[in-house]
Amino acid sequence: MDNTLENYFHDFRQNVLLRADIDSNYKRAAFLDYAADKLVQGDFIAGMEHCYYRKSGSGSVDGFFLDQDHGQLDLVIVDHNDNEGLQPIHKQSVDAAFKKLRKFYVSCRNKALYRQLEESSDAYRLAKGIHDLQNEVSKVRMTLISERKLSTRKLRLEKHDLEGNRASYAIWDMSRFHRLDSSRDGREEVDVDLHRMFRKGIPCLQAYVGAKAFPSYLGVVSGDILAGLYDEYGARLLEQNVRCFLQARGNVNRGIRRTIMEEPEMFFAYNNGITATARRVSTESGRSGSEITRMVDFQIVNGGQTTASLFHASRIGGAPDLSRIFVQMKLSVLEDRDSDEIVSNISEYANTQNKVNLADLKSNHPFQTWMEGCSRGYWAPAAVDALRETKWFYERSRGQYLDAQSTMTQGQKTKFTAEYPRAQKFTKTDLAKFENVWDEEPYWVNMGAQKNFLQYAQRINHVWAEARETFDECYYRRVVARAIVFRATEKLISRQPWYEGGYRANIVAYTLSAANEVSRTRNLALDFVRIWKEQSVSTEFLAGLAVLAKCAFDVLHAEDRPVMNPSEWAKKPEFWTRLAPRLPAAAERLPSGFWDYFAQANQAAA
Q1: Are 205 and 290 in contact (CB under 8 A)?
Q2: 198-212, 365-379, 564-578, 588-602 — which is least confidently predicted?
Q3: What is the rounded distance in angstroms from the CA atom of residue 292 to the CA atom of residue 322?
Q4: CA-to-CA distance for 79 and 74, rounded, in angstroms?
Q5: What is the pLDDT of residues 168-208, one digit of tens each?
Q6: Average model confidence (pLDDT) for the chain?
């Protein structure tokens, strides 16, 4: 094992220990949280809920997430013993872990495992959800997250049916996390082997001339290939896309779906096609000429809605045979020559189908670079009992925090982390959570990191264009103050005697939205100036948040909730209509010290 991987493992473990200490959590749970954050940011999973269950006769599970939009259930099992050094994990251990996950799923689906479990437990809710929603789940993805390193890189885990559902398997060991974090832009390449996945290639024509031209191809992609790629890789295909799929609400999406369902033979004529990039492309001679057989680092920079619409249409009863629908594709092979700038230009120039801000999700939007500049420039006051000032590190692009340290000596790293403590790093999706719990409907934060960020990005892009002057040092300080409150609330909930583990993110979102509501009714707003100066909040303020958190917890776990799964229940607007009437009475029980962190709304920013 090389020293680089050993160092990465050490850094990974230290971050887990730090998170366990900050959140007053078990190391195993902190390991899952830290790993899951990386997978969510990389679009490998949409979210993660804890559910620790172990029983020899009915399997094991550590976490899950149900993505109803895609009819997909993620089940996660953790391999973690808090090893101080990097150890190997062998095929026998991998097979045993997945066997336990399969046994758990089958026990829930076919044997009504929930009837044997305590109704208040997370395992009961998951088991009953699997049993009740089995007809709504078409794909089960089982993931092993390990603190060890696979003993071989040749281990292949194929998809197959599991009790009538498509099942796939994924292993995230330390080597794979290391490759993810070491990649240039903090993502794992999408490597598409078309012959292996679909037993066919993409008919194409070479479309470039001259030594200075980028290699490029014009291709005709069948609908089943695009739907299959989206099914396999999801939003990872759209890393460079300026939009994300907006379900079927927009006119374009409804039009795409109507053509698929009613006039599939006209799809090629009506649709603008897709624009894509890859770092490397392989072609072979096929029956009808040249065919693309492999695309390394494949990205759809325009046409994400077309791709996702084909996938969603494939799940509707009566959908036509997608192999008979064809989409034109322009594919540019960028290799490594100024690819970031060129992809950005291709993306901007190609996106003309919808009236959306072309920088909605791009990390080089002026707001993103402004936020990054603030975080590198503004020193935060020394916290109580601290001897020196520090800075908050805003990750405009994934992996910046680690990348900044990649060429440093150990002494330079020590100085860097003293200036930018790990606990003061936050990402674009973190920022969206900090802001939206105060400014937007709380259920947006419960919709998952990516959907919540999309909502935030659309709002900020509009405000940036209309009122650029509102973004100043006060705005940045307010962001940091909200981050301090948000993270303090996470720790607070983990310590509550009523907290049973799991669904903390849901409780945090509604707790802070509740705090905003009770203060708004008194014409008060969070005193971010005080919080910025103190870089902390008082125990009395936290005691008030605990009162509001218990209200959110009670609604989340109410026996008469209309949705069995608490995480799905938290996504419904009706959740707030049940919580809001409880808040006036709760406000009467808040300690006086709670209100010390609020000021008159027109004075809060003074």
Answers
A1: yes
A2: 198-212
A3: 19
A4: 16
A5: 889 999 999 998 887 655 567 889 999 999 999 999 998 87
A6: 85
Element (H, E) at 524: strand 524-526
Alpha-carbon distance 489 to 484, whole Å?
A: 9
Closest by CA to 430, choosing from 413, 458, 416, 450, is 450
Q: Are 79 and 93 in contact (CB under 8 A)?
A: yes
Confidence of residue 248 (pLDDT cuts 50, 70, 90): very low
Helix (H, G, I), strand (E, B) or coil at 276: strand
Q: Which helix (H) or strand (E) holds 128?
A: helix 122-132
Q: Are 581 and 514 in contact (CB under 8 A)?
A: no
Task: With CA atoms as reference, report the closest residue to 73 among 573, 565, 553.
Answer: 565
Angle CA(124)–CA(129)–CA(132) in degrees, nearest 5? 120
DSSP letters, 22-51, are HTT--HHHHHHHHHHHHHHHTTS-S--EEE
Say if residue 36's pLDDT is above 70.
yes
Tokens matching residue 32: 């899952």
Backbone angles phi, psi at 426, to 5 degrees: -145, 150
Please list the helix, strand and coil fractions of the chain in percent, rounded to the nearest 5, in that order.
Answer: 50, 20, 30
What would the DSSP string read from start to end of 475-491? Answer: HHHHHHHHHHHHHHHHH
pLDDT tens digits for range 344-403 = 556 555 554 444 333 344 566 889 889 999 999 999 999 877 778 999 999 987 778 877
Residue 184 in tokens? 């240039």
